[in-house]
């Protein structure tokens, strides 16, 4: 995955968004991933380290190797991890399709928000599998933009979300990948594939999620593609503004916002 | 709600579908609803008793009154309850908008798959509220057809599901009501409103749900409106057949099907 194909870009705001996302979703997505002390873990596609900090924090005795294709992201990831006082992570620049590790190097592999950006996620899983020891586990977490539900419902907001799907597809990715994890991981040769959907449900009785998820994670992510959407003529400026306003509207007193992540675990 | 406005009709197959639905969804939807012995419970809109049997089975000491507007449904409900050997339910024909009970008659109120069929669900909740004792609870379970996700994705299947939404709206109902429970119940004057989304996630590692939910509950429900869809020209015969085939396709080895119910609890 070349750096310029990452749909969300590499802006400062995007870095903040990823951190916000990890912070508000930590419990929901990560609470049940704890690796034993001494186990060797590969985090494939660590990006700026938003998940790395959580992963390493939850498994302080594990020996974690985190790779990413982007040197710039890796620098940010290293900085985050250092600032958090974490010492059990080694970073390495690497392409997920050309992995520089001997077979059976790891007890566990972890990927979060990575497959959605790849043109051939099944091939990536196929390249990762030999790196696992027999009986080792893989854990994959992905979103699915098609799971987005909100009240009040709004056609412009739905269209804005659809633009995200369209742009990611144009870049060779798939932002509807969450629902596909079961066949993808099965076809890649793993066994005991188990999928656990995790819905982020937000209404005004959950103010931290209204801020942390509806506004700062999801709507900020959609807003981040605004310039590209207008440039490509996918929506008019007026439609776009109405769509974004409608997404913020769901964060009001009587609004509701839902999004589902899918967490998969499987065994070699 | 007049009998003829019930979108799914009153056929034998529909009766079977509702029973299938309740059987496969029992744990997911009902496991956390248990009323104390001696408490008075109103089930509003019991239909043919698919939920009544579960409700009464889970709360064998509660004194349950189940109402419905349809005499025919009530007869089936009574029969189901009798066959299950349940003795703590009294049935009564009544309109949810004109309830024949004095104020503060009940400790708890329970509604499952009822509000979606009403033109004014907030008014119904407003009529129910005075029947609760101070501090009594209301529990509401509803689906949301907009939450339907499947793999392989298919435009005709999505269009077929959308027909269900359209027809239910034409009859004055709202099959996207699940996401709206928080504001609806809040506006009706209840407090401590808590929403718990319950996704039914189905892949081929869960064969009972493939049969019981994807095929016998959801796809059967969509198939049930086929004649009306064709009659009203909402889809052509070919489109419809392709949509239904695509829904069945999601029940194959590599298919995935997801649907989310929303369960609300609140207090007077």
Automatic annotation (TrEMBL), chains A, B:
Residues 38-150 form the Methyltransferase domain. The keyword Chaperone does not apply. InterPro entries: Methyltranfer_dom, SAM-dependent_MTases_sf. It comes from the Archaea. Pfam families: Methyltransf_31 (PF13847). This is Methylase involved in ubiquinone/menaquinone biosynthesis. Keywords: Methyltransferase, Transferase, Ubiquinone. The keyword NADP does not apply. CDD domains: AdoMet_MTases. One of its GO terms (biological process) is methylation. One of its GO terms (molecular function) is methyltransferase activity.
């Amino acid at each position: 995955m070349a750096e310029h194909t990452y749909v969300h870009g590499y802006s400062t705001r995007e870095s903040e968004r990823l951190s916000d996302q990890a912070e508000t979703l930590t419990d929901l997505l990560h609470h049940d991933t704890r690796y034993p002390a001494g186990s060797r873990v590969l985090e494939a596609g660590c990006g700026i380290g938003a998940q790395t900090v959580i992963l390493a924090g939850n498994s302080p005795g594990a020996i974690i190797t985190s790779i990413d294709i982007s040197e710039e992201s890796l620098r940010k990831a290293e900085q985050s991890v250092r600032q958090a006082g974490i010492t059990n992570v080694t970073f390495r620049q690497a392409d997920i399709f050309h992995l520089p590790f001997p077979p059976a190097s790891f007890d566990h592999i972890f990927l979060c928000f990575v497959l959605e950006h790849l043109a051939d996620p099944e091939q990536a899983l196929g390249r990762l599998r030999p790196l696992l020891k027999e009986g080792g586990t893989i854990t994959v977490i992905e979103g699915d933009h098609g799971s987005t539900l909100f009240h009040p419902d709004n056609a412009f907001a739905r269209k804005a979300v659809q633009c995200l799907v369209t742009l990611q597809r144009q870049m060779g990715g798939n932002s509807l990948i969450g629902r596909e994890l079961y066949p993808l991981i099965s076809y890649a040769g793993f066994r005991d594939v188990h999928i656990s959907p995790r819905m982020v449900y937000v209404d005004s009785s959950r103010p931290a999620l209204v801020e942390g998820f509806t506004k700062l994670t999801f709507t900020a992510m959609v807003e981040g593609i605004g310039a590209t959407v207008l440039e490509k003529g996918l929506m008019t400026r007026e439609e776009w503004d109405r769509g974004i306003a409608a997404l913020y509207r769901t964060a009001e007193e009587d609004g509701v916002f839902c999004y589902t992540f899918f967490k998969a675990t499987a065994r070699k």
